[in-house]
Every structure is written in C-alpha cells, then in structure tokens.
Structure to design on (167 residues):
C-alpha cells in the first residue's frame, strides 16, 4: 500500500496558490512512493544528528528507520498510518526566507513570495523538508556549515535532485 498525503488545513492561499500547492503535494506523494526516493534515502552516507525531538532523546535513527517514518506518515501527533498529514499556511514576510514549521501546531508555513517565484518542484522539496520537522527532526538555525547534512536538509536535497528542481 502506498503512502498518501492528506492536507488537513490551509490558510492564506488564493485559488492560484492552491492549484500550485495541490500539484506540489501530488509530486511529494509520487516521489516518496518511488523506488528512486527510497534508494536515495537508504544511500545517504551519513545524516548529521539523526535524532527526533520529544520522542527518543539521544537515540539515533538509521536510514531505514528514517525512511519508515516518512512512509509511515509518523508525525509527532499521529500514529504510523501511511498518511502524511500536511497543515499548510502562506504568509507575507519582510525578509527573504522560505518558511518554517511550528512544532506545536505542526503547521508548515511558506513565504508567499517563495511559492509565487519558484517552480512547483521547489515547493514540493520545501514541503518535504518541513515535513521532516513534523516528524521531529531538527537542525540548527546557526550551524550553516553542518545543517545541509541534517535529515530535513538532506531529504529536501534528495527531493530537489530527483524532481530536477533548481531552487
């Protein structure tokens, strides 16, 4: 049985934004169910700090366990049910940023300008990066030299590469 995505909440989207968001959600769903994605996750040489906040403390997750969490739809508020739950919000910002995830509400927020000015594949990769936060994986805002090896950044990079998205 394939993993599906359920969008449970949307805020700040126009009709045009929703069309692009739905396309991105479908890309993510197709991607995570592809053999290429599964192989790419399993082939990552080393994730930096593959631990989950609020779940297991110091335990490190293997590549297979990370893949199982993604495919199981195991965000911090739901059991593994093979449904990735997305709560999406668009917002305006004075700074040039992509977005963030609220770890209490698990809402994935994206800067409106990013969605409007980038290809659907870029937004899809962003959604998958942020989904990794809803599972509980984190990265430092300040460790710019190491965060590209963290689970959210590596998974986002895998998505960009496989989708051919130049973001």
């Amino acid at each position: 049985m394939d993993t599906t995505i359920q969008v449970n909440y949307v805020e700040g989207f126009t009709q045009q934004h929703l069309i692009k968001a739905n396309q991105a959600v479908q890309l993510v769903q197709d991607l995570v169910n592809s053999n290429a994605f599964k192989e790419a996750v399993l082939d990552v040489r080393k994730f930096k700090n593959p631990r989950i906040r609020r779940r297991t403390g110091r335990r490190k997750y293997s590549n297979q366990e990370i893949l199982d969490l993604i495919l199981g739809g195991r965000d911090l508020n739901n059991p593994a049910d093979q449904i990735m739950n997305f709560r999406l919000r668009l917002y305006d910002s004075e700074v040039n940023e992509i977005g963030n995830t609220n770890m209490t509400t698990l809402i994935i927020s994206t800067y409106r300008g990013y969605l409007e000015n980038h290809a659907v594949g870029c937004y899809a990769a962003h959604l998958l990066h942020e989904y990794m936060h809803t599972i509980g994986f984190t990265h430092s805002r300040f460790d710019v030299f190491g965060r590209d090896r963290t689970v959210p950044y590596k998974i986002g990079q895998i998505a960009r590469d496989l989708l051919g998205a130049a973001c």
In short: Helices lie at 15-32, 35-43, 63-72, 112-117, 120-135, 151-163.
